[in-house]
Amino acid sequence: MMKPLAWIGFALAVIGGAGLVGVGLASTVLVVAALGALIIIAIDIAKDRVPNQYAVIGAFVLPSLIVSINGTIPDWINARLGDLWGWANDTLGDWVGTTTVGLALAAVAVSFLVSTKTMQRAGR
Question: Per the UniProt record, which residue ranges are transmembrane (predicted)?
Fold first, then answer.
């Protein structure tokens, strides 16, 4: 019974998301999604003081959500993310042997692999 309810809930989320975009509230959804990602990260880390898989996924998604929002604060955060990426691309790119998209994909892949292993070790 739970699987059909899960699929019904998923379908309703898609319908609701489409409806909010349709009435011009897409930017509001981005703000709510960004706040939700921050909450997920905080809860995941607070549980055992270790960023596990949910925090890693949130950290991966959060920058894209933030820069998609219009405003002064997202613009400021976007500039800081650009600074972070510039440092990573220059510093880690030489070490890893690839830059730009290759480095970004390598960072994401390693972060997901490590977070999966740490969750398995924690018995989750």
Answer: 29-46, 53-73, 93-114
pLDDT at residue 96 in the model:
78
113 in the same domain as 93: yes
- Residues 7, 50, single domain; the answer is yes
Task: Note whether 60 and 108 are within 8 A (CB).
Answer: yes
Tokens of 28: 């509001």
Q: Residue 34 in contact with residue 66, Cβ under 8 Å?
A: yes
Burial of 13 (0-12, 13-18, 19+ CB in 10 A): exposed
Final residue in a domain of this structure, among 71, 96, 113: 71
CB atoms within 10 A of CB 103: 19
Tell me, yes or no, if the pTM score tops 0.90. Answer: no
